[in-house]
Design brief:
Elements lengths: L10 H13 L14 H24 L9 H10 L11 E9 L8 E4 L5 E5 L2 E7 L3 E8 L5 E7 L3 E8 L4 H5 L20 E4 L5 E3 L4 E5 L2 E5 L4 E6 L7 E13 L1 E8 L9 E2 L11 E5 L7 E6 L12 E6 L5 E5 L13 E8 L12 E2 L9 E11 L7 H14 L6 H11 L3 E8 L10 E8 L7 H12 L8 E4 L3 E13 L8 H19 L9 H10 L4 E14 L6 E7 L10 E2 L2 E5 L2 E11 L11 E7 L5 E9 L4 E12 L6 E6 L10 E5 L8 E5 L3 E5 L14 E7 L5
Parallel strand pairs: 17-18, 24-25, 26-38, 26-39
Antiparallel strand pairs: 1-13, 1-22, 2-5, 3-4, 3-21, 4-13, 5-13, 6-7, 6-12, 8-9, 10-11, 11-12, 14-20, 15-19, 16-17, 16-20, 18-19, 23-24, 26-27, 27-35, 28-34, 29-35, 30-31, 30-34, 31-32, 32-33, 33-34, 36-37
Helix pairs in contact: 1-2, 3-5, 5-6, 8-9
Length: 729
């Protein structure tokens, strides 16, 4: 008897196997299946076998998180691992709220309700933000003794805007109220500007803020940001009662409240939240005794059974099979059990997620004190962190890692897993103990975060990660500290030789295929913390992009970017952390002042006489040159062994075009094919052998996105040139 292939799932192959089996039987040895009605029966048998086989495979695949396709299967497996997928996240911003009530308002306290709306627009669409919780603040005074306020006229927004400035050395200022000098005191910064102590008119002098003029007894500052500010008391010189809330956190969404009546047999739940865009972090759960007893008790969200006793007022959040989030209560053993007739009241934000990010201007509806009040809603930080619900692939990746942490932050991988699971705007995380620093810093854990969009995680996101994700799950003695990622841009000039006889693709199509390979390499292997650039890996990917490619030549350069403090002398240090080829430093244009003349320049390097092939060890100077190559001034030094450029006390007045940064490029020495995440440290000024490599855990390599722009002096960050092979005759 012929053996059937029972593992085959393809319909045609199944039917073929059935025919082969029947042909092996004497009854059907000469049977023409194609022309007979039996062929229809074979179709039915093949279809049935195919469907049953596929169903069996699907059922098997849906039992494992790596192979499951349906979201409810992935969520169910994640639940068994103790992992709850991330819901929608509301965009959040921080506001500097200043309220000046009318004289008729005499209360010394003011409440900002969690239901107080703040309106904004993003890309022409209106959104509403609400405070996290109801907050109260006490009255203070503007004018006279501190705190001090900026009062001024905005050219677009109009008059009457108060901005708080808080003294960190209030006692020293109070002792100097009658002084006449410009004695410096440390204020907190507002918009990057540091303010200084009272002058003789008991107003505030400002350093490096722009042009100042005198108007009455106040100083008017023209900043270039279209602000004309009076610093000190308000313009009418009166002492005003004000309420100040700096850094008020608000989140986007619509306030929604759902009620559920507890029935017999359903005391535990689940109670399904009907809105798919709920931000589960904004849930507030209260339980009312009954329809007649209006007493409401607040319950707390718990993620672990370890801290929950039989009478703990706890609820648990999970995602249901329908994709909606739901809450459950205790059963009297783990958490307090509800009683029939209780009313569960759940309120939350139904949010738009990513759509409300990047809001920067807010206005408040209604009044907080009484009519006639003056309200300023200055933006401390624009809205960020809005995100959609966690995807299937994200759950598949994060759930096993979360399970390995056991909901605590002890090892570096614990920190990474918890942080990645908490914020969809984070692409990669690097965590290391302070004992690995040089010199060691004990008692600290350092965290570097690489965002999906942009280059720096906002302070609001860092604060949220620190207070909500890390601190509740880390040992008390360990202090987390954030380190911003250090971005290095890689410039590529790639030459590709191909055989036109082996392909129908045109030259441009060969180049496009190679560009796709480059993009794939950076998206999958780089653009993340602690990932090195390997020349051979990229070479192989480009060569595999077309069978016709014979050879690939990759010329790599590096680029760093600095954001200057305009019109201020400052020391700038640029660290490439690779061995630099002498004579290949370039930069975009910027303005400096030399000999009282402001000129547009770029940077080039000039090696010392002792810097020779093949080692090219040692250093040189960095010159500022005009477009014609003439040297304006020597502005710094370069160490070719460590790839370090120092620009001491350079005053940069302006940047070319619309640039916000200066781009500094450098070529790699010929023996440097790979670009690794290491810090090259010089331990001696006299020995080139004293340059040692140490781990650099906050380095990110990404593709240079520069385009050709003569105005700012940049070339393309990626150039691919395909050349057909020509046979010699």
């Amino acid at each position: 008897m012929a053996q059937l292939n029972v593992t085959e799932l393809d319909f045609d192959q199944i039917k073929h196997n059935l025919k082969t089996y029947l042909n092996s039987q004497e009854e059907f040895s000469d049977y023409n299946f194609e022309g007979a009605g039996l062929s229809v029966l074979l179709d039915i048998l093949a279809y049935n076998t195919h469907y049953n086989g596929m169903l069996a495979h699907m059922l098997g695949n849906e039992n494992f998180i790596d192979t499951a396709i349906k979201r409810e299967s992935v969520v169910s497996i994640a639940k068994a691992l103790g992992y709850t997928p991330r819901s929608y996240r509301a965009a959040q911003a921080k506001l500097n709220l200043v309220v000046t009530p009318p004289s008729s308002f005499t209360s010394t306290t003011m409440e900002v309700s969690r239901n107080q709306a703040f309106n904004t627009t993003v890309d022409g669409t209106s959104y509403t933000f609400f405070p996290n919780e109801t907050v109260n603040t006490n009255a203070t005074t503007a004018g006279g003794a501190g705190p001090y306020f900026l009062y001024g006229t905005h050219t677009t927004l109009g008059k009457g805007y108060y901005y708080p400035i808080y003294l960190t050395e209030a006692a020293a200022v109070a002792a100097d109220t009658g002084g006449t000098g410009a004695t410096s005191y440390n204020f907190k910064e507002y918009n990057g500007v540091t303010f200084y102590s009272p002058n003789s008119s008991k107003r505030e002098a400002v350093q490096n803020l722009g042009t100042t003029t005198t108007s009455g007894d106040s100083t008017v500052i023209s900043t270039g940001l279209n602000y004309g500010m009076y610093v000190g008391q308000s313009a009418d010189s009166a002492t005003k009662t004000q309420f100040v809330l700096p850094g008020l956190t608000v989140k986007e969404g619509t306030r929604v409240e759902n009620e559920f009546i507890v029935s017999l047999g359903n005391e535990v739940g689940p109670y399904v939240i009907p809105n798919p865009r709920v931000d589960a972090t904004t849930l507030r759960v209260r339980v009312q005794d009954s329809s007649t007893n209006l007493t409401r008790t607040t319950y707390s969200k718990e993620t672990s059974f370890l801290k929950v006793k039989k009478d703990t007022l706890a609820y648990f959040v999970e995602e249901g099979a329908d994709g909606l989030f739901q809450i459950r209560f205790g059963d009297g053993v783990v958490g307090k059990k509800l009683s029939p007739g209780n009313i569960v009241i759940v309120d939350y934000l139904n949010t738009n997620g990513t759509l409300a990010n990047n809001a920067s201007s807010f206005s408040m509806t209604g009044t907080l004190t009484s009519s006639g009040e003056v309200i300023t809603t200055g933006t401390h930080s624009k809205s960020v962190s809005g995100s959609i619900k966690e995807s299937i692939d994200e759950i598949r990746h994060n759930a096993p890692k979360f399970n390995a942490t056991r909901d605590r932050a002890v090892t570096s991988s614990d920190y990474e897993s918890l942080i990645l699971a908490s914020n969809s705007n984070i692409q990669s995380v690097s965590v290391w103990g302070g004992e690995k620093n040089d010199p060691p810093i004990y008692g600290k854990v350092f965290i570097s975060l690489n965002p999906v969009i942009g280059t720096i995680i906002t302070e609001a996101d860092k604060d949220n990660i620190k207070t909500q994700v890390i601190e509740p799950k880390t040992p008390v003695a360990i202090i987390p500290e954030f380190v911003d990622p250090e971005f290095t841009f890689i410039t590529l000039d790639i030459g590709v030789t191909y055989d036109p006889k082996l392909t129908t693709l045109a030259k441009g199509q060969i180049e496009s295929a190679a560009e796709v390979a480059v993009s794939e390499y950076f998206n999958t292997s780089l653009n993340r913390l602690n990932k090195s650039f390997y020349n051979t890996r990229l070479h192989d990917l480009i060569k595999a992009s077309s069978d016709s490619i014979i050879s690939v030549n990759i010329n790599s350069k590096l680029q760093k970017r600095i954001t200057p403090d305009l019109a201020k002398p400052k020391n700038y240090t640029v660290k490439f952390n690779q061995r630099i080829q002498p004579g290949e430093v370039t930069s975009s244009y910027f303005d400096i002042t030399s000999a009282n003349v402001t000129q547009q320049v770029s940077l080039i390097d000039k090696p010392d006489a002792g810097v020779v092939a093949p080692k090219y060890s040692g250093g040189g100077v960095v010159n500022a040159v005009k477009a014609d190559g003439s040297i304006i001034a020597e502005v710094g030094t370069i160490d070719y062994d460590s790839g370090t450029i120092n620009l001491p006390a350079v005053t940069i007045n302006a940047l070319a075009g619309t640039e916000k940064q200066i781009r500094i490029g450098a070529g790699l020495q010929n023996d440097n094919k790979d670009i690794t995440t290491q810090a090259l440290i010089r331990t001696s000024d006299t020995s080139t052998a004293a340059v040692v490599a140490k781990p650099s855990r906050n380095t990110v390599f990404t593709l240079d996105d520069s385009v050709v722009n003569a105005t700012i002096n940049t070339t393309a960050g990626l150039v691919i040139t395909a050349t057909p092979e020509v046979e010699e005759i």
